[in-house]
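Aim 2, interim progress. The first record below pairs a target sequence with its C-alpha cells.
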Amino acid sequence: MRFPSMAIDGWQLLDGKEHHRWAPATFSIPTRLEREGLRAGDFAKLMFEIAVGDRVVVERMWVLVTARNESGYVGILDNDPTEIAENDELWSGTELPFGAANVIAVTERNENSLAMAELPPRRSWL
C-alpha cells in the first residue's frame, strides 16, 4: 500500500521517532510496543505536513485505527485540518495508511470507537 507523499497528494506524514530523537526531553512519544500494538478502535495522533499554497504547515491530528496490514495500519482521519479549506482529499473521514514510526500519541479504544472503526470511510485510500 502506498503511503501519502507530498509530490502526489500534497501532504505526507512525518516520522515521530525522528522528531523524538531530535528533542527527547521535550518531544515524547509512546513506547515502541504501544506504537506497534495498535488495534482497531484505538486512536493514533500523527503529524501531517501539508502544502498550503507556497508554504508547508504541520498539523497534529488524530486518526482512528481501522485495520493492520503488512505496511502498518489503515485508519480514518478524525480531525479537520485548520490550515486548509474543507476538501475531499484530506478531511475528517478520509482513509489513510500509516506506520508505527508516524505515531506520536495513542488513546485506547472504547465501545464507541470500536463501533466507529466498523463504519466505511468518507473517502477510501486509493
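The second target in this work package is listed in the same format:
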Amino acid sequence: MSSDYTISVVRADTDDKAWTVTVQDRPDWSFREKNFAAIDDRVRDLAHTHDGVDPDAVTVTRAHVRIGDVDITEQLAGLDELRRRAQETSAQISATTVDLIGVLRTQAGLSTRDTGAVLGLTGGRINQLEQATRAETTE
C-alpha cells in the first residue's frame, strides 16, 4: 500500500471554525479539523488504521489549501521548503561547529573560553557540546 497521501484543505471563510479535509482517492476519509497543525497527524492515523501503513512513513502532500476564495497552496509549499532547507542548514551548522570545536580544542590547544570566543559561543556552551559529543560516541 502506498504511503503517499494527497489532501485538499478548505476553510469556508474566516468565520468557519474548522478545516474541511479531503484525501485524494479516499472520499471516505474526509473529516473536519479545528487545528490546522493536527491535519497531517490525522491523515497519518487514518493511513495506519485503514491501510496498515507506519505513520512515520506517511508523506502528506497538500494539493490545495484555501480559506474562502484565497488560495495559499503555493505560498505554504514555499514556506515548507524554506523550513526544510533551514533545518538542513541548522544540522550542517551544528556538525561543522562540533568538528571545529574538536580542531580548536585538540589540534590548536585552545581553552573552552578561547574556543567559544572564536566561534561566538560561551565557554559553557563549548563544554556542553563536548559533553554531548562524548556521550554520542560512547552510546
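The chain has four helices and five strands. This observation will shape the mutagenesis plan for the next reporting period.
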